[in-house]
Each structure stands twice: as structure tokens, then as C-alpha cells.
């Protein structure tokens, strides 16, 4: 919390050099789209990733109208169908651009929010493909570009579900635990080799998005507010950071509670979203 008192929020500007580009995965809407808007506003050109080309084109047009001095390019692929050829194609699409910022925003909850024993093969497969295989292979393939274009920054968007052990989305929460460990290890590698590549794992709490339209509150922040908080957190000095102060307040309160009470509140908040319960109520 105290880092906010001494942090200007402008450290991201350090990575804007020589016609810099950022790549944001899952940029069609929500936090990803907000991050694209924020990065363009700070001075980056941005590669926007998604699986729906038409949707990405609309985002591109909207962003160029708002930021006419910047450039926007598309990277189209379905992260749930990750393969060697697909990752190599993404690398080719990035080409010789001066990539100084990679934002691993894309993540997928289980397709159906259910107890693990009731989930199906496809629920687990899609979540692990997107949350583990795609992010690991994409980062592996693009990290050499970040090294070549240093100083640069790698932003991995995590989730408070990893911190509080959210039930009914166990695989999703586990992918964020994987992402945290990956971030910490890459950070150590960069520092061990004297490389100027900043690595951040961003603990993201609840955000109001098109896919998660629950209304805004102190706990549920807007996508633009989250996007700004994430970019402002760059250069905070640690690998693990909770970018939005609202979520940090919530985490601090939860941390003061006994574990059993934490588990109770988290479980009760997830219960209304369980598909098996929702379906019974609508029958």
C-alpha cells in the first residue's frame, strides 16, 4: 500500500522508446480494451489480440479515432486451440516491430461455474489451454524480443481468486497460481542475467465488464479504472502487486479475518453464480 505514496504512475514512459509497441492479449473488450486505450494514450503503438477479427477491427477503428497519432495492428488467433504453428504465426505478425511491452491479459474461467466434480473435459481443457499453455508459449516466444528491445516490461494479469482460493473455479484459480510462479521465476532470470526487463504479476480483483456485468461499486471497479491502475503500477518495485487501491483495501480486510471466515465469505459470494443452482431456480 505504501508504494502508492512515492510512485508517480509514469514509470511506463521508460519503455516508450524508438517507436515502441505493446501487445495486449484478449483486447476485444473489458480490461484488455481498457489497457489498449491507456497504452495508446501514454504513447505506445499497440498490437491487439483476439479471436474475432471483426470485433478487433471495430476496436481498432474506435482507438484510432481517439488516438490518431498512434498505430494499431491486429493479431488474430484462438488461444483455446494453442499449437506450435499458431504461436510462430503470432511471432511473425509481431515481426520486426520494437516490442517493449507484453501484456498477458487473456484468461478464461471455467466455461461453466460448477463444482470441480461436475465439470467436463472441455471446461478444464479450454481453461488450461488459455491460462497455462497459451500464456507460457507466447511469453517464451516473445521474451527474446523484450530482451532485444530493453528496457522493456512484461505484465501478467492475475486474479484475487488465486489469493483467496475461490471455489467453483478451481482450474482458473490454479492457472493464476501458475502465472504467479512463472512471473517470479522469469523476474529472477532477468535480474540474474543483468537484463533490463521488468516483470509484474498484477493481482486483479473484481471488475465490471461486458462478460461480467454486475454493476460498479467500491469492490467492483470499472474497466477503464482498472486499466489505468495497471499501467500506473509499473515500476512499483515488486513482482506481485495489487494495482487498484480498492482491491488492496478489500485484500487487507480479508487478511485480518481467520481463514475459515475468509472461506465462508468467498464461498457465499460464489454460490449464486453456480450453474447447477441457477439452472434449478429457472426450471
What does this structure look like?
With 283 residues, this protein is an alpha/beta fold. Helices cover 48% and strands 14% of the residues. It has ten helices and nine strands. The strands form two sheets. A seven-stranded parallel beta sheet has the order 3-2-1-4-5-6-9, sandwiched between helices. The protein starts with 19 loop residues before the first strand and ends with a helix. The model has no long low-confidence stretch (mean pLDDT 90).
Counted beta strands: 9
Mean model confidence by pLDDT: 90
CATH class membership: Alpha Beta
User: Roughly what percent helix?
Assistant: 40-55%
What is shown here, in short?
This protein is of the alpha/beta class and 283 residues long. Helices cover 48% and strands 14% of the residues. The protein has one domain: NAD(P)-binding Rossmann-like Domain (Rossmann fold, 3-Layer(aba) Sandwich), CATH 3.40.50.720.
Amino acid at each position: 500500500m505504501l508504494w502508492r505514496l512515492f510512485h508517480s504512475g509514469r514509470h511506463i514512459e521508460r519503455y516508450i522508446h524508438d517507436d515502441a509497441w505493446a501487445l495486449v492479449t484478449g483486447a476485444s473488450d473489458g480490461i484488455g480494451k481498457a489497457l489498449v486505450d491507456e497504452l495508446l494514450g501514454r504513447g505506445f503503438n499497440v498490437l491487439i489480440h483476439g479471436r474475432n477479427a471483426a470485433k478487433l477491427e471495430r476496436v481498432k477503428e474506435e482507438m484510432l479515432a481517439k488516438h490518431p497519432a498512434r498505430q494499431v495492428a491486429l493479431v488474430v488467433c484462438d488461444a483455446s486451440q494453442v499449437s506450435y504453428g499458431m504461436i510462430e504465426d503470432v511471432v511473425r505478425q509481431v515481426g520486426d516491430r520494437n516490442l517493449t511491452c507484453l501484456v498477458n491479459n487473456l484468461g478464461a474461467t471455467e466455461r461453466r461455474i460448477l463444482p470441480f466434480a461436475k465439470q467436463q473435459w472441455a471446461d478444464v481443457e479450454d481453461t488450461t489451454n488459455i491460462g497455462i499453455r497459451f500464456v507460457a508459449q507466447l511469453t517464451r516466444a516473445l521474451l527474446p524480443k523484450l530482451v532485444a528491445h530493453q528496457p522493456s516490461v512484461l505484465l501478467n494479469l492475475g486474479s484475487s481468486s488465486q489469493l483467496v482460493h475461490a471455489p467453483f473455479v478451481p482450474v482458473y484459480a490454479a492457472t493464476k497460481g501458475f502465472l504467479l510462479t512463472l512471473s517470479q521465476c522469469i523476474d529472477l532470470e532477468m535480474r540474474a542475467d543483468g537484463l533490463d526487463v521488468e516483470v509484474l504479476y498484477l493481482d486483479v480483483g473484481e471488475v465490471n465488464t461486458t462478460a461480467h456485468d454486475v454493476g460498479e461499486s467500491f469492490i467492483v471497479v470499472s474497466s477503464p479504472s482498472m486499466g489505468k491502475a495497471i499501467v500506473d503500477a509499473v515500476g512499483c518495485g515488486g513482482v506481485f502487486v495489487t494495482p487498484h487501491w480498492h482491491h488492496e483495501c478489500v485484500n487487507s480486510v480479508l487478511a485480518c479475518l481467520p481463514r475459515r471466515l475468509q472461506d465462508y465469505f468467498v464461498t457465499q459470494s460464489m454460490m449464486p453464480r453456480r450453474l447447477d443452482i441457477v439452472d434449478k431456480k429457472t426450471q
